[in-house]
Amino acid sequence: MTTIEAALPPDSDWHDALAAEFDSDYLRRLAAFLAAEEAAGKVIFPPRDERLRALDATPLATVRVVVIGQDPYPTPGHAHGLSFSVRPDVRPLPKSLGNIFRELRDDLGIDNHCGSLLPWARQGVLLLNAVLTVEQGRAGSHRNLGWERFTDRIIAAVNARPEPAVFLLWGAYAQKKGRVIDRGRHAVIESPHPSPLSAYRGFFGSRPFSRVNASLRAFGHDEIDWRTENCTILG
Could you give the 3-state DSSP secondary structure of residue 68? Predict the structure, then answer.
């Protein structure tokens, strides 16, 4: 077992879905690369035990919504394994997350201040980055090392289930990752990315949260409660 798979609890249903990936040469090479970088003194985010937190927080059987990000925040104290999410004590919020919360307020009247999206994850929102690690201060530094292939398999595992899900794809990068989705069975909601560079090009006003909940209702699922309060008790 590599240090990557070891970050996932032994009873997780993701083990069976991703067994071939965990046993693959490319993931072993990736684990060796990360270990060598840390041995050389480089700081990698998130820590080892949080690199598969998106899977830990949202078992495959519970996935109702998938949100695809790019890679973790490279800023100390921010990344904790969930796309767009930050640790509960982070202030100010990253600009993309601030824009997400602004759109949520305009869409559903919910005024979030806690940046940890763990309450979403626990309701079946898979907050998945395409790349699951990053070197401190170097955004995008771990791209094209194997994580993209691994997260493609995660998306494929959700796509293969008989239960329908809603895929929320913000920006061209996420939309490219979502090309494998069977749009005849799943709902796909697309818009520009919430980053400051593109939020005004169509993210603001896209009403993604009410649209997700409408799709969930159509599937016979409960809605997502998009509030993120109680940061003091979240990790």
Answer: strand
Active site amino acids: 71
- What is residue 204's DSSP assignment? T
Radius of gyration of the chain (CA): 17
Question: Which residue, among 138, 200, 126, 199, has the nearest Cα to 163 in the 3D structure?
Answer: 126
Q: How far apart are CA 137 and CA 202, in angstroms?
A: 29
| Joined tokens for residue 211 | 């649209």
Contact predicate 131/73, CB 8 Å:
no
pLDDT band at 1 (very low <50, low <70, confident <90, very high): confident
3-state secondary structure of 14: helix
Output the six-digit token pair for 4: 């990557």
| Segment 52-97, tens digit of pLDDT | 999 999 999 999 999 999 999 999 999 999 999 999 999 999 999 9
Q: For 91, how many CA atoms within 13 A lie in the half-sphere containing its CB?
A: 5
Category of 93 on φ-ψ map: left (φ > 0), alpha (ψ -120 to 50) or beta: beta
Coil, helix or strand at residue 97:
helix
Angle at the Cα of 58 (from 190 to 160), degrees rounded to 5? 60
228 token code pair: 């993120």
CB atoms within 10 A of CB 8: 19
Tens of pLDDT, residue by residue over 181-215, are 999 999 999 999 999 999 999 999 999 999 999 99
Phi, psi for residue 173 in degrees, rounded to 5:
-65, -50
Token reading at 67:
């949100």
